[in-house]
Amino acid sequence: MVIDPSTEAGAKVTRWLQDDIVAWLVTVAADGTPVPTPVWFWWDGETLLVYSQPDKPKLRHIASNPRVALALAFDDVGDLRAVVTGLAAVDDSAPAAFEVPAYIEKYRDEIARLKSNPEEFSRGYSVPIRIRPTKLRAW
Predict the structure, then answer these.
(1) CB 21 within 8 A of CB 107
(2) Is the pLDDT of residue 9 over 80?
(3) Neighbour-count burial of 13, counting CB atoms closer than 10 A to its CB (0-12 exposed, 13-18 middle, 19+ buried)
(4) N- or C-end of the chain: fewer Cβ atoms within 10 A?
(5) In-domain check, residue 40
(6) pLDDT tens for residues 12-21?
(7) Residue numbers of the domain that contains 68
(8) What is the pLDDT of residues 112-129, one digit of tens each?
């Protein structure tokens, strides 16, 4: 298990994965340029689930190079506290966002701030990306 909640670092990262609202998903463009994008995410204890709008560059990047990084949990002065690297792929078997109660609970206020509801949000962010962590750096 890459993120082991029984370790001190793993417990911190697990808490950040559960509580943090935004992380930076870094994909790699065709020319090798790293491309960070802020995303909402849900941690199920083994994988991360991100929902994307269709036809976004991150989807093309992942299709050509599945290696990604997710930068988590900046503190008040901007110090980064964890980076999860892994392999990402579109997961057509994943449920729609509104069908994941923990995801909707985590983002209920943010979805409302967008003047949306879970079903409408799910229609717009209809492409599920599953990230399987392969390495954790935390401090």
Answers:
(1) yes
(2) yes
(3) buried
(4) C
(5) yes
(6) 889 889 999 9
(7) 8-138
(8) 999 999 999 999 999 999
